[in-house]
Specification:
This protein is mainly α and 146 residues long. It has one domain. Helix content is 85%, strand content 0%. The longest helix is centred in the first third of the chain and has 50 residues. It is elongated.
Length: 146
């Protein structure tokens, strides 16, 4: 095996490793985002169940321990509502930036892999990628409808 063949083989191996790592990280982030969303939904359900159930004692918030009056409670509820909205907006912004970063890496990796392939292989690789992306988008759209 010549030096050129070994270099190409090493390059292909490294590109596949980088691409594979990118895919795994993408799946991990996606799974983590799904887990966080599920956890938030669970917490929201628990909170609403707790608030609506008069049989169960409510967990006491720290500010309740200083015994605020009704006016103070209304103001505190307004503050908490604004805090939640800001936190949710920040979370969405961070998730958008993270997804954009992962997407950029994924596209760069795909282009690097195509650079190693022949024109015919690169065209077939692109076709397969497009099919895979379409299937993933269809699954995501289906999940959003559920």
């Amino acid at each position: 095996m010549g030096q050129e063949s070994r270099t190409r083989l090493t390059t292909v191996f490294l590109l596949v490793a980088v691409f594979g790592t990118g895919i795994l990280v993408g799946f991990a982030v996606d799974a983590d985002a799904d887990a966080v969303a599920s956890e938030v939904a669970s917490v929201a359900t628990i909170v609403s169940d707790t608030a609506s159930s008069e049989d169960q004692p409510r967990r006491r918030r720290i500010y309740d321990q200083v015994e605020p009056n009704e006016i103070q409670l209304n103001l505190i509820d307004s503050i908490v509502t604004v805090h939640r909205a800001r936190t949710n907006a920040l979370d969405e912004e961070m998730r958008t930036q993270l997804n954009a970063g992962f997407r950029e890496i994924l596209l760069e990796t795909r282009e690097a892999i195509k650079g190693v392939l022949t024109e015919e292989q690169a065209a077939e690789y692109q076709r397969l990628l497009e099919e895979n992306d379409a299937r993933r988008a269809a699954r995501e759209n289906e999940d959003e409808r559920d």
